[in-house]
Design brief:
Blueprint (H helix, E strand, L loop, with lengths): L1 E8 L2 E7 L8 E10 L4 H6 L30 E8 L11 E4 L6 E5 L4 E2 L6 H4 L2 H14 L6 E5 L3 H10 L6 E5 L3 H9 L4 E3 L7 H8 L8 E6 L7 H6 L1 E9 L16 H4 L2 E4 L15 H15 L5 E6 L3 H10 L6 E5 L5
Parallel strand pairs: 8-9, 8-11, 9-10, 11-12, 12-13, 14-15
Antiparallel strand pairs: 1-2, 3-4, 3-6, 3-15, 4-5, 5-7
Helix pairs in contact: 3-4, 3-9
Amino acid sequence: MTAALYFTAAHRVEVRDEARPAPGAGQVLVRTIVSGISAGTEMLIYRGLAPAELPADEHLTALAGTLAFPLKYGYAAVGEIVEVGQGVGREHLGRRVFAFHPHQTHFVVPLAEAFEVPAGLAPEQAVLLPNAETAVNLVHDGRPMAGEQIVVFGQGIVGLLTTALLARHAPAALVTFDRHALRRRSSLALGATASLEPLAPDEIERFAASLGAESGYPGADLTYELTGDPATLEPALRVTGFDGRVIIGSWYGRQPARLDLGGRFHRSRIRTMSSQVSTIAPDLRGRWSRTRRLRFALAFLESLRPSTLITHRIPFAEAERAYRCLADDPSEVLQVVLTYPDEA
């Protein structure tokens, strides 16, 4: 048997027993060691805020179907290959791999979709691969330049990893915002020049002007909105300078975003872009493939060794507690991982 996690209704998950799958030709059976919970998309599903009619993911074979309840979801599993199908060499047995797969104790994937985890990367660090790939995609879409003034709203896991990558581009300023002190401290440790609590509406223009105290350019050259809160999009636009870029990495699900696009915005020539990791920017597709981006994201994680970002380790059998933790008290949470029994 295997056990799989199902989202059955808003604020409800349950673990169900299923027949253990057997690998077919070209496939492998993976015993899960650890899986990561997405505080973004998964929590929208958990809260009942995801559009039920939307395909779960059109690019991941393990996420067929829609976001309607009941469904299996999740895309960050690390495990060990314990069985191989026809045409797959036995030398793959025992290898640790990452797969974009929902939370369950055992699963089958094509060998080509089981990415080997480098020996120097712990399984719980490897579950951050989708977040790291998302951070790479966000940086690709933002096109940061050395000396720019950059602002990032939201320092969840994706925001923190994006900040760590942006810090390597020599910005003149890299200012982040988050309401939780733990996230702000982590942001500074990863390279932010300042990490602040969200601003009151009457403080935004003063902050934007202060960014240009030395450069003479008031506001952010590049702003990221990564909070998942549509109310943050307007402050993100207001801190951005003339001809600046705003990259929207949040997915709001069914939550509407209400914006005041009068006043200064009309004359600002600000460019906004949605950024989502399932595709690559059209002008980069001649040089960048999904495989190249994943490999770079793995190398980035190896260099970062983000153990301190894993704050909660909860047994798979107690998965409901993990989601309640994220929903009810996010102030002390960065990344929650589910751990699995050590059995063949």
